[in-house]
Amino acid sequence: MNISPQQDLIREESAARDIDTQKNKWTHKYIIRIAVYSCLCIALSILGVFSVQASKTIQYYNNKIYPNISIGNIPVGSLTKEQALAKINKIYTKGNSLSLKFVLNEQMVASISQKELGYSLPFTQAVEKAYAIARDENPILKYKTILLLLASQEQYRIVIQPQYNTRVITVNLQKIDDSFRTDPVNARFEFKDNKVTDFRKEEEGFSINKNSALATIEDLLTSQEVMQGKKKTLAIQLKTRTIMPDITLSDINQLGISELISEGKSQFHGSSAERIYNITLGSQRLNGIIIKPGETFSFINALGEISGATGFKASYVIKSGKTVLGDGGGICQVSTTMYRSALHAGLPILERHAHTYRVGYYEQDSPPGFDATIYSPSVDLQFKNDYTTPILIQTSVDQNNLTLSISFYGTKDNRVITLSQPNISNQIAAPPTEYVDDPTLGAGVVKQIEYSAPGASVSFNYSVQKNGKITTEDTFSSNYTPWKAVFLRGT
């Protein structure tokens, strides 16, 4: 095959171009390698310089806190721990000059000293925390933090948390609340002839807002003003919170009180004027009380303090196995009558105590065993309202017939109440009458201080059925000690 001179020239030019292309490829790769090696060398050089500088920096701050670190608002960078501690000790409070003053209605009602509070500032711990920054075991994190601190790109602030005894504060707040708290008073009303006839508007109560006070105290004790000693007497303005009554006048039409549920009665012929007075006063204080569904009624709590200071007179009471004069003698006539009404209403009796001996007043219109004694604060009469509607207590004293009536109003629920006849056993005659000479009485004067009563054991069964199911079943027992009559005789 013959090749023309022109074709031969084209081939030579093509071969030359291939050789040039190959040369260019090797030249480009060579340049890239040189550039990479150069960058690597530069990077290693920079890293070496940085490592040397970092080592020098770490060495310089070996016993110093790194820069741009503060405790509170006090810069402590580049200081040793000792220097930092000395610096903040000069600025922050020391000694026992701090005090809390609790103020209610513009009057100081309590105070707590710094010593009682146990208030202190943990400076040493704060300095240790500041010193520990950028000393992480992870070298990458450590160098990163150091670099940022040195370049002022990052700042650390150690917050000082004061140490103090919060229990001292809560105890004081509780004492203040106990002293000044006012409990709410429920609306009360009279129920007569199937309608409400007498209103008393509810009263709101108030108590100390302890949570608000605690938050205020915490804010103050952690403030820079207090920690730096610029403010040493802290006046805590106590706020109050309103306690709403459970029952208001607007609730009355929703209570469901529509009929008489039960009534308890007792007679007290032969009572002294003081005893009659106490019976009347005690029953008046219980008149109109409403027992909510599910609520437990406590006779002692409902009646309140029994003393001369609350209006009761001295009359005979049973105390420590003796009949003696005491404030409120006769109140057990009220508790006994309340007990009888609770039984007739078919309520669960949670607490009831018999008298030490048989008291004649409680057997004038009742067999023995249906009495209930109370003695504040531990001997109580308690029962529960297990109706679905409230129970209204109505009390009435017939001064002419010396009869006390306590009625419960609400809504009946078809419960069936069964009270057995009392079983009386172990009857023991009263001991012989005793005469005690008393030189304080005139010659020939005789005064009876104890009345005789035979002893006995009495029990009766009590059951309540609702919808064919027994809901309450109990046996109430009373053991009465035989009691002798005692007369004082003047000599």
What this model shows, in words?
The protein has helices at 5-60, 81-91, 114-117, 123-132, 139-150, 166-180, 210-221, 224-227, 273-286, 299-303, 331-344; strands at residues 69-71, 74-75, 99-104, 107-113, 156-158, 188-192, 195-200, 205-208, 233-237, 240-243, 259-267, 290-291, 296-298, 314-319, 322-327, 349-351, 382-384, 391-398, 403-410, 416-419, 423-428, 434-438, 446-450, 455-466, 469-480, 486-490. The protein has 3 domains: 26-60; 93-131 and 156-254, no CATH class; 255-490, no CATH class. The protein is built from 11 helices and 26 strands. Helices cover 32% and strands 29% of the residues. The strands form 9 sheets. It has a 4-stranded antiparallel sheet. Strands 20, 21, 24 and 25 form a 4-stranded antiparallel sheet that branches. It is α+β, with helices and mostly antiparallel strands and 491 residues long. Residues 111-223 form the YoaR-like putative peptidoglycan binding domain. Keywords: Membrane, Transmembrane, Transmembrane helix. The chain crosses the membrane at residues 30-52.
